Amino acid sequence: MKKSHILVLAVIAAAIGIILSTAGDVSQYVSFKEARELAAEGSPTKVHVVGRLPRDGQRILGLEYNPTLDPNYFAFTLVDTNRIAQRVVYFNPKPQDFDKSEQIVITGSMRNNVFVADKILLKCPSKYVEKDIKGATASVN
Amino acid sequence: MLNTFIGDFGHLSIIVAFVAATVAAYSYFMAARNQPLGETDASWLRIARGSFLLHGAAVVSVITCLFIIIHSHRYEYYYAWSHSSNHLPVYYMISCFWEGQEGSFLLWIFWHVCLGLAIMRFNRKWEAPVMAVFAFVQLFLTSMILGVVLLNVKIGSSPFILLRDFLTDLPVFKLNPNFVPKDGTGLNPLLQNYWMVIHPPTLFLGFALTLVPFAFAIAGLWKGELTKWVKPALPWALFGGLVLGVGIMMGAYWAYETLNFGGYWNWDPVENAVYIPWLVLVASVHGMVLWRRSKTALRTSFVLVITTFLLVLYATFLTRSGVLGNASVHSFTDLGLSGQLIVYLAAFVVLAIGLLWYRWKEIPITDKELTTYNSELWVFVGATVLCLGAFQVLVTTSIPVYNAFLGFVGIKSNLALPADQIAHYTKFQLWMGVLIALLSGIAQVMWWQKNDKESLTNSLTVPGILTLLGASLIILLVRYNKLQISPVYIVVLTAGLFGVLANLSMVLTLVKRKVSLSGGGVAHIGIALMLLGILASAGYSNIISKNSSGLLYSREFTEEINRDNVLLWRNESAPMDGYDVSYTGQYFEVPGLPEYVNKEVLFRTDDEYKALARADIKQGDKVYYKAGDTLNILPENTYYRVEYKDKKTGEAFVLYPRAQANEEMGGLLASPDIKKFLTHDIYSHIAATPDPNKEKDWSEVKEHVLSVGDTLFVNDYFGVFRGVEPAHETAGLGLKKGDLAIQADFMVYGEKKQYHVHPVFVVRNRLIGRVPDEVEDIGLRLSFVNVDPTKGKFTFGVSTTQKDYIILKAMQKPFINLLWSGTLLMAVGFGMAIVRRRREARETVAAIPEPATARRPRALRQPEKVA
């Protein structure tokens, strides 16, 4: 049973390698403060930041997107869970449902005082169960 | 109005199905207890069969009730209201059925019923123990849709819940408890696709099929028949591998056609949750084949068959418990069933692993030492590689689970999935693919011959040389086309080619020898082709909408920023990587017409789904509608017509990427359109459009006083005022008797075509109303301001707006057809293997006469042995 023993050892080694390598690739949810610290240390890893958009009533403050000048440049301000605001740029068109989002998850890293995002995940209220019926109030009269 | 009967009947059917499954599970268990395989207690068996048939009938009744509710638009039921709407065609109502968790559970339950009946019919000898496991699974699955509250614990979520019981806080129900909404919220538009009609049933059939080998294995362990279960289980396992594999690829194809991440596989946790069990299932098939051929790897087969089913349960837990939350775009909304799902998973983990532990020492092992020249060794290594690949995906996909678990025991954890998932998974899965391609080639060649050093070298020489030649040729071609090829890609290419050629040479040799057809060989060719297709289409996916303009903002980041989207003004052509591309307008889909219809020739009415034809609508040489006719439209989707013209060859084609301004989902849902060529696909989707919710900014209105026949100059266009005519009865006017309505007839000359413009002027009770008319193509609005009948002069107001545009992303996917054709070949290979293994399984069944069911008085039963 020598060969099979070798095989078992190889499998165990591979499995351990997979786990360690995955642990190295795992990203984490951080605040902007930690993201800045990571960037200052020169760490190239990308992080996830969860935040909200600063609003003045319904209007979102600090959105910058002018497609006719540059369709691939979108900048906004995001406030993380510790209330730290940070300018974020995204080199893609502005996601159409951006204005409606309650919570936003971005992945990317800090560079020269701006956070360069390469992915934006939006949590729209509509992703949850609908709680309202259109026309329900009108039809009662 | 409010029909509660059908829902009550459906709910009753669920309860009957649950109780019948419980009775069936217990009586099958009693029927098989303390008896050798093939002998059963007849009276228990009768009860068991009866209750399983009753369970099946009840399940069919539940499905029928739910479908009637959806089909007849009974919006008093939450399921119909939240998944369907009035304008949905019947085939999408089928998709509605499994859009929700409850419906997809039902689908799964239904397949189990079908498979259970097949086993009752074809595997008599194994019926009692296998069906005991089946009914036990059904008991858990039906409990998921029970919707009963016991001792303050909610068990299951019923699809028959009334809207008023779900949205209890809505004031409307306090005023009028019998209120029924007029329309539902509709089916997620991304799911309105023919793949979504057939992909879920395929996938769930695949899920259901993993239960069959599992149930056989458990029955074998239970009855101490540790070797005989493999033969009847193998065809089922192959069938599962086929269906699940095809189901996964259907999902991939749907994503490619419908979502806009630019590919077919996104390593989303929900995709992975199905991919993992499939890999282990395929590995288990290899284990079983090894046992059938050379009596090795039986323990491996047991472990893998059981693991496959447990992984299906784990996948169910992942996708349905809400644990993925932020991590996945496809997972179901949380119905609060996590506890129940964990119980379901835990029950089978404990049962299966406990039984295996109990019998482990008795499972026969071979003392034959495997040597390098045994094909078995290489098949075994291949199965191991598959399992390691599955393990890798499992470790990463479970990250949200670790978070949840640590949070549950009170440790705060903020792990997230790798930021660059594609790079992370590719790092491992690429090498898994390479090893599989190489091993499948080598093992397949060795499988069919007696091997020693010499014979092996001989049979591998031809495919080896051809592989190296082919790979060199392809590398030269890639270089000739000024593309890079990295060493890693060279390895993948060589391995894929070897996999194709080695398997092909073996299949051809066998055909020549007229020995038999090797399904395995054909499936392996398919897999290797898929690998090559993935290498070409993902590794050389080329964004052709690269944009070098507008570097205004991003100077500080120019070195590594991809600028992948291009802005196209309406009717202005722009160069794009060897093509001239122009966006030429917005179109609607009209049922019954072969092509889309330009919005410019449609006059929208108050009813969103109806429009008037402004001009004759002609497609081909047939006129479908005359000017003024009313036609039905599907208003949800806007199709943006994009013309591609090859600069070199002058060949042109048109794509209609679609977008949907959707309030519910928030914003714009864009789906690509794909032009398929033999060697590549051109894939384009809309990245952004002017915000449809924003009012357009119109310029200051300029007034012009004209006589009939005058010409009007606006920006770069001119229009001719050709006369005044009585206005058509158009929507929104609601003309009454005594009203006067006239419209002007303008002909405006644009860059490419002319436009009829008809601003309307209405007089009612001395009040004046004006209905302006707009030409979207050129951003022009005309209103009919005033009439001076004495002088024969007419005043018109003209205002202009910024022209319409789209922002487009387009890419080229080389040789993606290899992936799809490889999938088909893989399916064919599986099919051939099923036919062969079924025949084997039958031959032995025919040889053994049907054993009579033994009746024993109860008193003589031996005490139970099995824990």
TrEMBL record, chain A:
GO terms for molecular function: heme binding. It holds the Pfam family CcmE. GO terms for biological process: cytochrome complex assembly; protein-heme linkage. It comes from the Bacteria. The keyword Transferase does not apply. GO terms for cellular component: plasma membrane. InterPro entries: CcmE (IPR004329), CcmE-like_sf (IPR036127), NA-bd_OB-fold (IPR012340). It is found in: Membrane. Keywords: Cytochrome c-type biogenesis, Heme, Iron, Membrane, Metal-binding. This is Cytochrome c maturation protein CcmE. It comes from Hymenobacter jejuensis.
TrEMBL record, chain B:
One of its GO terms (cellular component) is membrane. It comes from the Bacteria. Pfam families: Cytochrom_C_asm (PF01578). Keywords: Cytochrome c-type biogenesis, Membrane, Transmembrane, Transmembrane helix. One of its GO terms (molecular function) is heme binding. InterPro entries: Cyt_c_assembly, Cyt_c_biogenesis. Residues 102-321 form the Cytochrome c assembly protein domain. The chain crosses the membrane at residues 12-31, 52-70, 90-118, 130-153, 203-222, 234-255, 275-291, 298-317, 337-358, 378-408, 428-448, 460-480, 486-510, 522-540, 815-835. One of its GO terms (biological process) is cytochrome complex assembly. Belongs to the CcmF/CycK/Ccl1/NrfE/CcsA family. PANTHER family: CYTOCHROME C ASSEMBLY PROTEIN-RELATED (PTHR43653), CYTOCHROME C-TYPE BIOGENESIS PROTEIN CCMF (PTHR43653:SF1). This is Cytochrome C biogenesis protein.
